[in-house]
């Protein structure tokens, strides 16, 4: 037996991601090309073509360590966001940034406030650092900001708000989120996770506060995984005032963002056409599923992200039945939503195949 570990780690559950295509293909004895994965909110159009070209150009230099400070990417990203490079923190996916928040702000005796049905990594990181998780009941499957504000105490150090929220796809009205940000006391870090913000038509403008240096206890999290289609390269970024970013940088590992991710992200930022096509495909796919669910009488949660949550009765059974047909979706039992599955929006052809598999699964008891 290995030596005893920290108490928090011993009791920590393991995050369960969407099942990989290759694993399901092996189980079913099928070719990976025959498997459709709509489980992890990935971009069905693939990565930006510009990013693919940049990757090809960067490959001969992977014997070298990446730029540890990502100078060129930070410069380009800062110009894109109209902030300064000192406002930016890069991570190996947004998950690493959440962990950096844990290093800086969480520990025994500290409280972290989240909403019911929040992204699974917030509770995991909270438990890892020995802090106390305060879960506020959801309101219509989304954030109840008034109740979350009421849950803040002198021991609270972090509040997480995902907008749009994963896994429910719900959003917080812009005005309400801005008022909430005003009300969060200065001893609390407000982390607003905007992984899906590019899918919103009218996102809250919290970024303006950081451009002006007006809110030192606000951290925005964004990612290149979703709308830019670079999930396999793992690149997220945080936006905050320079003082906050400098503090979090102390916990960051050197060379945490690899050279290929930096090259691809730099190119993807200039591919406005790929972003436009992704948004258009997503809006069309949401309309398709909403109309289909109404037609066949399934309850769903209207989504502002690139996925949709639908109530199917026995979520795990339906997930398994769809998987046997070569279609991977995400069961929601781990989120306390055992009657639901989450479906990533695909291309029109993928959406049709997914719907057919879902209807077949529902017909078999």
Question: Would you kindly provide a brief summary of this structure?
Answer:
Helix content is 39%, strand content 15%.
Structure description:
This protein is of the alpha/beta class and 365 residues long. It folds into 2 domains: 7-46 and 272-363, Aspartate Aminotransferase, domain 1; 50-268, 3-Layer(aba) Sandwich (Aspartate Aminotransferase, domain 2), CATH 3.40.640.10. The protein has 14 helices and 13 strands. It has helices at 7-10, 21-28, 49-58, 71-81, 94-105, 121-128, 145-150, 174-183, 207-211, 242-249, 259-268, 272-296, 315-324, 348-363; strands at 36-37, 88-91, 111-115, 132-136, 156-162, 189-193, 218-223, 236-239, 300-301, 307-311, 327-328, 330-331, 340-344. The strands form 3 sheets. It has a 7-stranded mixed beta sheet with strand order 2-8-7-6-5-3-4, sandwiched between helices. Strands 9-10-13-12 form a 4-stranded antiparallel beta sheet, with helices on one face. It has a two-stranded parallel ribbon with strand order 1-11. Helix 4 (71-81) packs parallel to helix 11, helix 5 (94-105) runs parallel beside helix 6 (121-128) and helix 13 (315-324) packs across helix 14 (348-363). It is globular.
Q: Over all CA atoms, what is the radius of gyration? A: 21 Å
Instruction: Look at the structure and give the mean pLDDT.
Output: 95
Say how many strands there are: 13
Strand order in the sheet with the most strands? 2-8-7-6-5-3-4
CATH superfamily of the largest domain: Type I PLP-dependent aspartate aminotransferase-like (Major domain)
Q: How can the largest sheet be summarized? A: 7 strands, mixed
* Main structural class: alpha/beta
CATH architecture of the largest domain: 3-Layer(aba) Sandwich
Total separate domains: 2
Amount of helix? 25-40%
């Amino acid at each position: 037996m290995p030596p005893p570990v920290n108490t928090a780690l011993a009791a920590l559950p393991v995050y369960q991601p969407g099942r990989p295509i290759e694993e399901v293909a092996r189980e079913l004895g099928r070719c990976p090309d025959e498997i459709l994965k709509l489980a992890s909110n990935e971009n069905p159009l693939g990565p930006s073509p510009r990013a693919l070209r940049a990757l090809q150009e960067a490959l001969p230099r992977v014997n070298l360590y990446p730029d540890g400070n990502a100078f060129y990417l930070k410069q380009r990203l800062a110009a894109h966001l109209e902030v300064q490079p000192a406002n930016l923190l890069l991570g190996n996916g947004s998950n690493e940034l959440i962990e950096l928040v844990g290093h800086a702000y969480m520990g025994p005796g500290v409280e972290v406030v989240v909403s019911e049905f929040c992204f699974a990594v917030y509770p995991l990181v909270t438990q890892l650092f020995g802090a106390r998780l305060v879960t506020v009941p959801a309101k219509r499957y989304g954030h109840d900001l008034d109740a979350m504000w009421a849950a803040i105490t002198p021991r609270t150090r972090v509040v997480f708000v995902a907008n749009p929220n994963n896994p429910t796809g719900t959003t917080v009205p812009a005005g309400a989120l801005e008022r909430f940000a005003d009300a969060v006391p200065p001893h609390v870090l407000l982390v607003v996770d905007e992984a899906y913000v590019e899918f919103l038509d009218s996102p809250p403008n919290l970024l303006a506060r950081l451009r002006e240096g007006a809110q030192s206890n606000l951290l925005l999290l964004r990612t290149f995984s979703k709308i830019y289609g670079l999930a396999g390269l793992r690149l997220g970024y945080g936006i905050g005032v320079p003082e906050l970013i400098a503090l979090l940088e102390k916990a960051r590992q050197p060379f945490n963002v690899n050279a290929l991710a930096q090259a691809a992200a730099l190119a993807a930022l200039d591919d406005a056409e790929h972003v436009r096509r992704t948004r258009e495909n997503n809006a069309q796919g949401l309309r398709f599923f909403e109309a289909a669910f109404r037609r066949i009488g399934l309850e769903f949660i209207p989504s502002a992200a690139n996925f949709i949550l639908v109530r199917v009765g026995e979520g795990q059974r339906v997930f398994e039945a769809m998987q046997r047909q070569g279609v991977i979706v995400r069961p929601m039992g781990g989120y306390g939503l055992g009657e639901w599955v989450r479906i990533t929006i695909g291309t029109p052809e993928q959406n049709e195949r997914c719907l057919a598999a879902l209807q077949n699964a529902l017909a078999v008891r």
